[in-house]
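Appendix B. Extra example for self-study. Work through it before the problem class; the solution is given directly after the inputs so you can check yourself.
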Amino acid sequence: MNDLAQQLAATRLVSRHLGSLSGEAKDHVLNSIACSIEESGVTLLEYNRKDLAEARSQSSKALTNATLARMTLTQEKIEQMARSVRAVATLADPVGKILLCSELDEGLELKRITCPFGVIAAVVEARPDAVIQLSALAFKSGNALMIKAGSEISRTASALLGIFKSNFEAAGIPADATVMVKTREDLHELLKRHREIDLVVPRGSSELVRFVVENTSIPVMGHADGVCHIYVDAAADQNLAVSVILDSKVQAPGTCNAVETVLVDRGIAGEFVPKLFKLLQFGAVKVRGCEIARELCGGKIEMVAHEEWSTEYGTLVLAIRVVDGVKDAIGHINRYGSHHTDCIVTEDECNAARFLREVDSAGVFHNVSTRLADGYRYGFGAEVGISTGKLHARGPVGLEGLVTYKYLLTGRGQCVSHYVGPRARRFKHELTAGEMRSDSATSL
Amino acid sequence: MNDLAQQLAATRLVSRHLGSLSGEAKDHVLNSIACSIEESGVTLLEYNRKDLAEARSQSSKALTNATLARMTLTQEKIEQMARSVRAVATLADPVGKILLCSELDEGLELKRITCPFGVIAAVVEARPDAVIQLSALAFKSGNALMIKAGSEISRTASALLGIFKSNFEAAGIPADATVMVKTREDLHELLKRHREIDLVVPRGSSELVRFVVENTSIPVMGHADGVCHIYVDAAADQNLAVSVILDSKVQAPGTCNAVETVLVDRGIAGEFVPKLFKLLQFGAVKVRGCEIARELCGGKIEMVAHEEWSTEYGTLVLAIRVVDGVKDAIGHINRYGSHHTDCIVTEDECNAARFLREVDSAGVFHNVSTRLADGYRYGFGAEVGISTGKLHARGPVGLEGLVTYKYLLTGRGQCVSHYVGPRARRFKHELTAGEMRSDSATSL
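Solution. Structure tokens for the complete assembly:
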């Protein structure tokens, strides 16, 4: 057994223990981690400076300014990290929730109860805040964590995980509960361990997510692309449409929930497209489009080639296509979109209902900015990620996305043979409806 | 585009329509399908006779008696199929359930609402009843279905789907909603279509499931193996243990929830193992075991080799291993088991609680037969399958396993820019708690 395999075996064993911790115990540890982060400010800044110096010196890597900014710690960011850990502590414990309770027969009780996945592998880029957030969320949900951070922040990430580990040990929790995966080779190996890793959570660029998806048979929670659409219906409030489009494109063009394509009903295209084009130019947005849109923009935009409709520009570029009504718009979105978030702007309730029903995306919006697709704005407290898969969690995923459930059946010797044949007992199936909590995770 | 691709495109388009059907409309169609099945008895029996004649004549295939029995229709089985379709009609509509409703801000409403997957591919063996059941469940859950049945029942399956199609058409639903996949080549092609197929449901032998899992990147709902355990604790009621073990092994040894390995605590092994061995021999069960178990059985059983502990015998064979208490038992189960269903027999509540908590399986039982792991016995009305995956549905899966959800956000022009900066509005996040139904699927 190599080092990684040994580590994985140890972490897998610890994961059993984590599922038994009470919510109070976990929150206590998280709060002390938050204090330690604040107290370790000087040390953290020092490790971070070394990471930064090395990153700058390796001209071969040519890190962008955005990457350097994201990996740079400041006193303010350290305080923000501590706050984010405390925020996770305030969330309800997702483990041990009784989702269903049914008396199948006298003395034969079935419970569906939430439980951790076990071991989660997280892959993040060179972002110290992502390391902190995923470590806190994994611990709160009772999961052990193997985390690979961008190698540019290896010292910073290691120091941050060190804070988790020392607080774990002070609370009698094995330090193997949160483990740093150091090399790309180890990550490759990890992604092959489908018997030992229960879930992979990649957070970062679509390249990162695609790399993970293509290199593992373990379930992945995440999304590669955010090709979001806004359809402007003939019955749209056009001023509302313009402001929703501008917010969806300009407010943060690099995010996955920014809009990439605007579809405009043919009936209003002659009026709306030139107006929109002017305002987009004013907002420094580069416009591209279909042939009709190009004509309506006085030939001043580039044409979009067939396969380009599936492109996530991720910058101040927007494509416009003229379509024949809501049915055509739905067809375009379901074909070229990435099932992330799509919006209709209309005052026609009938078209809105059809759009909401038939668009096959995690978020389907009516008269609002696509940028609102976000765990915090949805009120989930913390966002593990946004999922475009249809199994398990879809859309913005909070803490509940890191737990699964199992069925517990308890009785006093009931056998299937009692329920078959001429003198068979009958099941009662008496449901105790609704969600509730078991008194404590350990009493389950 | 070849035939299959054309069919798939048509089915995908129809699937949008299916999600909009009301529960009443679907139940009406299902009830008329049930009547048509009863009325078509003579025709169905005729097609089935042709299938059987061909199957018997192809000696190269050497079908077992069990397979022949399963593929044979009788008047009674036809009536049973009609009843099973009526039973699906009585289930609550799984589509359009509002799982969460939150007023994020005044006039900004978020709903999490159940919706169909879209297109489901089902793969079943030569079982007419499985064809009927999956077709009914897929339709009730608003999904289009591409179904491949064992080629031995091609005429029977085609006639059964014909009944669905003609009833669909009579109700104004395109016949493409349920499509038969005829060849193995088409199935292979289908399993590659991850952009067009949302979920694969294989029902049948573990070979079938493994074939599907290994040949697709589409999410699969199912389980390949059922390696179930019963752990007999030192504090067990030994008579209860014996009856639970016998029921779990003998009542239906070929099923996935039958027990394969019994673990016995060392403290009672000397007394319990010889007693169990005698009763198992009486029940014609062939016993195998670890070295200690072998000694306790007077050397009369074969030893189990290391890797054999993960074997699903699927017949009247049982392995016995002596372990050092509950911790050791949990370790064995999590290592060698298939995360299906595992049981502890004990009067010690503390050991029971630990077992229920730490065993990483879809079903974890206390003092009851593993054979109780079943959708009907759990009270789910109809079973789509048993899942050992941790994402989405786990354990016996009812109709709810065939739907996913999406987020609908409706407002009047709200933008992210309203919620940032010095004059930012604040979110309310006012939850309307609990589950409810939208008045009708079409009013969503």
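Self-check: Chain B has two domains: 3-214, 228-373. If your reasoning did not lead you there, revisit section 3.
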